[in-house]
Amino acid sequence: MAPVTVFGSAVFANAARVLVCLEEVGIEYEVVEVDYMAKEHKGPEHLSRNPFGQIPALQDGDVMLFESRAISKYVLRKYGKASNVDLLREDSAEEAALVDVWTEVEAHHYFPAIAPIVYECVVFPARLGMQPNQKVVDESLEKLGKVLEIYEARLSKSKYLAGDFFSFADLTHFPYTYYFMKTTHASLLDKFPHVKAWWEDLMSRPSTKKHGAGMFLEP
Amino acid sequence: MTAGSSSSSKPVKLYGWAVSPFVARALLSLEEAGVDYEHVPMNPDAGDHRRPEHLAMNPFGQVPVLEDGDLTLFESRAIARHVLRKHKPELLGVGELERSAAVDVWLEVEAHQFHPPTLAIVRECIAAPLRGRARDQVVVDENVGKLRAVLEVYEARLGSHRYLAGDNVSIADLNHFTLMHYFMSTEYGPALVGPLPRVKAWWEELAARPAARKVAAFMPLDFGADKKEK
């Protein structure tokens, strides 16, 4: 039986999101490189995996999935129980709802604030030799600061975002935060001690340590 | 699976102005679920969403907010998932690994591929004029191009699947309704959807659902501007 295959390596933040979930559930998987600089993700073979031509995709037997947050939930749902890992909490309506709330917060508040900083300060310089657009960076830092104030308040009241249990809502923050913390703006987290402690806890997990090592783009 | 047993003593309440496609998305999930709920209207012009009482429910100061028993939720997509997981789990594919995966994929597609360009078009074509601002045609044209490419993927998908996530309707289809409702009232709606027969049929069927018709009545195409005059 073919192992689970991820198309796109950890250097791609959205692929790293999926890869840490695979590590958490402890199943075997293989990673197939997609050559971004050669636009392989827009070629017919990858388009047959992801019609939007983005990275990652995942194949599990006959199942082909795309959109990293959806792939991650599938992996956690299918393989979690056997490994005694429950990061979606779907047996509890209340817990699952709070996981969903903070997963949506990552997608619609956190990611839009932090991703432009990662693109400007890490991805574009490394991939395209461009200098950061300081206006974009400054606007995003301001937005991110406001988001982090809310996170600080939340994490002052509960150990993790969805409650006192670690969940996908926390883990989904890993990839973009990892790259952000490589930039000179990492010190922003020093203003938010609960957020900083939460981040360090996230980085103490074997899954994030392993795939952080594969996220080699430097600012 | 526990189903929020405390909720029977407190009614479900949804806070927010129904003209918002986000609030209306949550209302649609409640209508589809067939549960009793109370809609608590709010006034954005009076800054209801920035009051401390609201921020205590949603620290991002946005609508909608759902109260279900002791649970307070925000983010319309999380609210819709909760309501339907509880009352119509088949719309999420609960208990079916492949179906739930397909549902999750197309929920993400709605959020990350469909929503951004569609919202931009609706903002420029409907919201901006209502606020006395001219439409930015450059923004419209850029997003029409993006949405056209997205809808071509939908056309292909609906060619091989009856609904986005498979043979049966799901929350992935439903989550498109409220923003599509506004988008289809602009000239770009029929222009983009008209040439795509499967997307067109999918849209018409979605809009014909009794819950969708009911929620559409809460979303007048001028965002209720005429009511403000009175």
TrEMBL record, chain A:
It catalyses: RX + glutathione = an S-substituted glutathione + a halide anion + H(+). Residues 2-83 form the GST N-terminal domain. SUPFAM superfamilies: GST C-terminal domain-like, Thioredoxin-like. CDD domains: GST_C_Phi (cd03187), GST_N_Phi (cd03053). GO terms for molecular function: glutathione binding; glutathione transferase activity. InterPro entries: Glutathione-S-Trfase_C-like, Glutathione-S-Trfase_C_sf, Glutathione_S-Trfase, Glutathione_S-Trfase_N, GST_C, GST_Phi_C, Thioredoxin-like_sf. It comes from the Eukaryota. Its EC number is 2.5.1.18. Residues 92-219 form the GST C-terminal domain. One of its GO terms (cellular component) is cytoplasm. Keywords: Transferase. One of its GO terms (biological process) is response to herbicide. Belongs to the GST superfamily. Phi family. This is glutathione transferase.
TrEMBL record, chain B:
It catalyses: RX + glutathione = an S-substituted glutathione + a halide anion + H(+). Signal peptide: none annotated. Keywords: Transferase. It is an enzyme of class 2 (transferase). One of its GO terms (cellular component) is cytoplasm. Its EC number is 2.5.1.18. The keyword Transferase applies. Residues 10-91 form the GST N-terminal domain. One of its GO terms (molecular function) is glutathione transferase activity. The keyword Chaperone does not apply. It comes from the Eukaryota. SUPFAM superfamilies: GST C-terminal domain-like, Thioredoxin-like. Residues 96-223 form the GST C-terminal domain. InterPro entries: Glutathione-S-Trfase_C-like (IPR010987), Glutathione-S-Trfase_C_sf (IPR036282), Glutathione_S-Trfase (IPR040079), Glutathione_S-Trfase_N (IPR004045), GST_C (IPR004046), GST_Phi_C (IPR034347), Thioredoxin-like_sf (IPR036249). Belongs to the GST superfamily. Phi family. PANTHER family: GLUTATHIONE S-TRANSFERASE 4, GLUTATHIONE S-TRANSFERASE RHO. This is glutathione transferase.
